[in-house]
Design brief:
The chain has helices spanning 2-26, 35-70. The chain has 74 residues and is mainly α. The protein folds into two domains: 1-30; 33-74. The longest helix is centred in the C-terminal third of the chain and has 36 residues, at 35-70. The protein is elongated.
């Protein structure tokens, strides 16, 4: 019975040790900017740049698309 408890307790203690180590080092990994933040910022920048350059054409394209669906209502 003692060997069963010992073999069951060892993986549990290793898991607790791993979790403690992970929690202790997690605060130091926060210096990097996550990839999704960079992707979001770059996408917002591209949309803003496209909007500034092609604002009039985008308005015309959207208006023509709505007129095509509605039927050219005045």
């Amino acid at each position: 019975m003692h060997t069963v408890i010992t073999t069951m307790a060892r993986p549990l203690s290793e898991a607790v040790s791993w979790a403690w180590t992970r929690a202790a080092t997690h605060g130091r990994d926060r210096g990097d900017v996550p990839g999704w933040v960079l992707v979001t910022i770059m996408t917002a920048g591209l949309v803003t740049a496209l909007w500034l350059v092609a604002d009039d054409k985008l308005r015309q394209l959207f208006g023509d698309a709505l007129d095509g669906v509605v039927g050219g209502a005045p």
